Amino acid sequence: MHDIYFERNYGRLYEQIERGRCEIFEFHHPLGNVRHMFIKRLIPVCINEEAYYDLSTPYGYGGPVITDCEEVHKCQLVQNFHDAFEAYCQKENIICEFVRFHPLLTNAQDFRSCYELTFRRYTTGTNLKDYDNPVKSEFSKSKQKSIRKALEAGVDYQVTMNPSSLEEFKQIYYATMKRKNADSIYYFNDEYFDDLLKYFGEHIVLVKVLYKGKAIAMGLNLIYGKIIHIHLSGTLDEYHHLSSAFVMRYALALWGKEHGLDLIHEGGGITGEIDDPLYLFKKQFGKNTEFTFYVSYKIWNRKIYELLCKTVGTEMHADLFPAYRSTATVRDQVGMKNQ
After folding, report:
1. pTM of the predicted model as reported, rounded to 2 decimal places
2. Cα–Cα distance between 323 and 308 in angstroms, integer?
3. Residue 95: which of 318, 331, 324, 337 has the closest Cα?
4. Whose CA is closest to 11, among 37, 32, 50?
5. Residue closest to 251 by CA, chosen among 123, 150, 104
6. DSSP state, 62?
7. What are the angstrom distances between the C-alpha of 80 and each of 76, 96, 108?
8. How far, in whole angstroms, is CA 221 from its chain's centroid?
9. Before 322, cis peptide (omega within 30)?
10. Taking Cα atoms as reference points, which of 155, 139, 163, 124 lies closest to residue 264?
11. Beta-ladder partners of 67
């Protein structure tokens, strides 16, 4: 299985945001191949006049992925990859990496022998493939009722694939981020949206919700293969009573089913708690669908990692990873926030 998160241009979208460079480590072996894409970031702390780096999966999901390997040979291939990547990290002065594995691909399980897995959260979505009527089967009854009332009140919607512009979407999106006092990482600039349209225009599906001819909500979704990923969305607060966020998902589910797609992936909540409010909201559009999202905090050079922590005056086991980026000065320099 391939997905948009493994495209090099997807990684390039986040070079400026994560202040690093998108790189791909390709491991080829008679038993199979492993491809690993990441953002390589300079660590803004000088040790012995050496430049050191750390790695992070671009925003979303990713991690190393196996291709062209028989199941019986996977364990050996992963071990060989581990040895080769460890040598690469040593050569390139890479100290550690933060990996976000792909919940749909389940590549975390393939690499559990060389990456210690940490459960981050459940994700959910709307299963289009296995239900004749995904809205009836996957949406909660309360959301179905709210959608019916909104449509009866005159709410309408439009679905556009490969849009020519994202200007209207940006206006609603920025208004939503401002209203919610969102973290700076979610304030994608014009360059980000320009590149998104340039690299992935044919993969973008815009859903616009309208009331009396006015756009009151918009969703920017990414389609790749048979999967739709809900990427970014915004709503106008004064029209909250018209359930525009629900209508967006309704419109996308109808469109996806009509076009023979398999799944709308919603993602998860903010925390890993089963009662996380955002997760519970998303779950109302995927009652029967759930995936497991794992991450890994991998230290490749413990000696230098400890020295970096000591240099900036932080504990090795600080809440933020890497711990040496947990101090205010270093954090501000790199703009890093692990999801």
Report:
1. 0.92
2. 9
3. 324
4. 37
5. 150
6. B
7. 6, 19, 17
8. 12
9. yes
10. 124
11. 33
Query: In which residue are the tokens 């993969």 written?
Result: 203
* E-state strands within the chain: 21-29, 32-42, 53-56, 65-67, 94-100, 118-127, 155-161, 204-211, 214-224, 227-235, 263-268, 291-299
pLDDT tens for each residue of 254-309? 999 999 999 999 999 988 898 999 999 999 999 999 999 999 999 999 999 999 99
CA angle 192, 193, 199 (to 5 degrees): 85
Task: Write the CB contacts of 103 (distance below 8 Å, at least 6 apart in sequence).
Answer: 61, 123, 265, 291, 292, 293, 294
**CA angle, 104 as apex, 100 and 110 as ends, to 5°?**
65
pLDDT in tens, 149-181: 999 999 999 999 999 999 999 999 999 988 888
SS3 177: helix
Distance CA 215, CA 302 (A): 52
Largest Cα–Cα distance of the chain, in whole Å? 69
Query: Among 84, 100, 117, which residue's Cα sits nearest to residue 38?
Result: 100
User: 23: which strand partners?
Assistant: 38
| Cβ neighbours of residue 163 closer than 8 Å, sequence gap 6 or more | 169, 197, 201, 204, 206
291-299 and 94-100: which strand pairing? Answer: antiparallel
